């Protein structure tokens, strides 16, 4: 999920969307591992990943070029246990 509309923010919409994608990936596609990457400046995405059950695995330094320069990317992962 890239962004949520302003009126949906803080209402759990993004967490429900990510959780639905996780269920689909694990149950329908048989995936073993999912990763979620976001800019370390994007605290809302970090909260979504955490609430959806993803664990922080590390930071990729200067991994993505945005209009305002290079961003470090935090990596979260979830295993199908």
TrEMBL record:
The keyword Secreted does not apply. The keyword Ribonucleoprotein does not apply. GO terms for molecular function: protein N-terminal-serine acetyltransferase activity; protein-N-terminal-alanine acetyltransferase activity. Pfam families: Acetyltransf_3. InterPro entries: Acyl_CoA_acyltransferase, GNAT_dom, Ribosomal_N-acetyltransferase. Coiled coil: none annotated. This is GNAT family N-acetyltransferase. It comes from Microbispora cellulosiformans.
């Amino acid at each position: 999920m890239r962004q949520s509309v302003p009126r949906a923010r803080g209402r759990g919409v993004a967490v429900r969307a990510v959780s639905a994608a996780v269920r689909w990936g694990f149950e329908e596609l048989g995936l073993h591992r999912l990763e979620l990457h976001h800019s370390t400046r994007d605290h809302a995405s970090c909260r979504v990943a955490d609430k959806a059950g993803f664990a922080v695995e590390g930071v990729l330094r200067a991994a993505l070029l945005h209009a305002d320069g290079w961003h470090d990317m935090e990596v979260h992962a979830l295993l199908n246990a």
